[in-house]
Amino acid sequence: MSEVQKPLEAADLNPEHYINRELSWLEFNQRVLEESFSPENPLFEKIKFLSIVASNLDEFFMIRVASIWDQIDAGYDRPDAAGMTPRQQIAAITARVRVMVRRMYEVLHKEILPGLQAAGVRLADEKSLTKEQEAFLDEYFKADIYPVLTPMAVDAARPFPLILNRSLNLGVLIDEGEGEEPSFGTVQVPSGLSRVVRLPDKDGVSLILLEQVISKYIGRLFSGRKILSCSAYRITRNADLTIDEEDAEDLLQEIEKQLKQRRWGAAVRLEIDHRADARLVKVLEDALELEGGDAYSIHGPINLDFLMQHIYQLPGFEALKYKPYFPRALVLEDCENLFERIKRSDLMLYHPYDSFEPVVRFVRQAARDRNVLAIKQTLYRVSGQSPIIQALAEAADAGKQVTVLLELKARFDEENNIHWGKRLERAGAHVIYGMAGLKTHSKITLVVRAEDRGIRRYVHLATGNYNDVTANIYTDHGLFTANEAFGSDASDFFNMLTGFSELPKLSKLVSAPRDLRARFMELIERETENALAGKRADIFAKMNALVDEGIISQLYRASSAGVRIRLIVRGICCLRPGLPGVSENITVRSIVGRFLEHSRVFLFANDGQPEVYLSSADWMPRNLDRRVELLFPVEQPALAKQLKELLKLQWRDNVKASELHSDGHYTRVTRPGESRLDAQEVLMQMFRQGASE
Predict the structure, then answer these.
(1) Would 125 be classed as within a structural domain?
(2) What is the mean pLDDT of the chain?
(3) Out of 268, 296, 358, 509, which residue is the most buried by the measure of CB atoms under 10 Å away?
């Protein structure tokens, strides 16, 4: 800006300054889709990205689209921040998804399947089977498939059956004679059988999909009847849990009950083979009470999960995947344990470049250390064979005081968390299943240890979950500290979670929903005031999503005052950069690559005295107002400098980075004449060469 303008006031904002949240998310999924045909990626990694896109769309419909339909059904027609009513959002989503789905199947047919065939993997169909394969399928269907199938007819005595959410089915039209409407029947493709059947083939790998095999023999299920058509279909249902926590006497029982209902929510999407008879489509739309726009014609296999679950897992194709990356190990001095290392100075790890093993070791060592008196931890998502849970159970078995806040409302991880909660209770741990009205999304562990000079507290804080599996593919920061102020804050924080005490003003940590929104507003406002005073003002932040209207308004105000704002937002971004007089000092980029960028880093210039923070929270209303979150400073200069240099490196990415334009679309970051720089590749190389100490 050539001159300092009057800061933009919240009242000056209008819907044209915001991007609709759902459309922004679809743009993120498009960036993932682009990785499935990027020449930068090996064939099997393209398969993985395409499978992720399909899985992402499933969750999007089950949660986001379903919630918009709930608004419509309730008669709610108030526009969102971008000025779009629920009906307008559905129309825009439908149009955008149709384009995306068409592109997905173009990639499948033009990139993936030809690439697989060249590699010796063939996806067969009924017309291309050899006599040997025909004989194999005859026997396999008779012995292994037929006994499991249940054909369901629909007539006056047999109503339309309940179709499970995301189950794959075959819809059948049966001839009832001249002048009569055909009857409808349906067969669920058994989820207990492998979706992919391997065929005998001496020259390579031949596969056929289970639904194609059943379709081939569908006449055997409706013997004596004339089959007019048989087409694969799948429905997506509303899967958002509706929990009345105030009236629920036992949150654990209430969630267990709601999980059973998830399979039967209202239908929000029908996917059906594009060759399906129009009469079959009409039967399904009417029975499921869907509107015309809710049906999607699919030009290929419905549900691309099989790509990841079966084809990506095929042995012998490692050369068509990313080269394995082995995280950097933490190196300790001779005879030094992890507690002694943390006591020496704060320790920061960056997963997956740094190994997650020290986090597991921290809990395991605490479980086995006779001087440790108590372990307290929040858990949001953990793996199916979690070593963290096993270490906590070991500590409780050994008689240590173990307290775990295990969030039951972590979407799609509810059943896993219920299982682990009961396991910890059997071991003798105190388990709190979340807080009424709030999700506990913070990532913190407190270890209380008796030492020669009295009680010492060790704290681990992180931007990501205590999940040893996702730690290999999600980028997240973790901080170990024995700083007494951090330890005192951690004790107060856990006492608030487990007891009736109110959370006092903390010294180092900032928590949501109490103080986090106000703290972010203060930090942004300080940069605004510094810019107006001619001082150095700069905001550099990285997060998963930027949705909150209050934060966006404050960023616009800062931009109009002259603050330079650089944002790395992987997913949803409702802020429009580059608007004259509003956001011309704001640049937004997104990185989508081999690893999922998940860390939240916030840097504020503070007139030459920079402050750097890490957090479990994104700039979203749910994180700031409806979740228990933590923001924590990185105070050691060397560690703060590492984070600043990391952000600068990622900002220079010109391979996997895309830049957001004011119209809501993204284009790849290109710098003519500059060498290619893939930040994730550079970081892997850097961490391979160094040892963490």
Answers:
(1) no
(2) 91
(3) 268
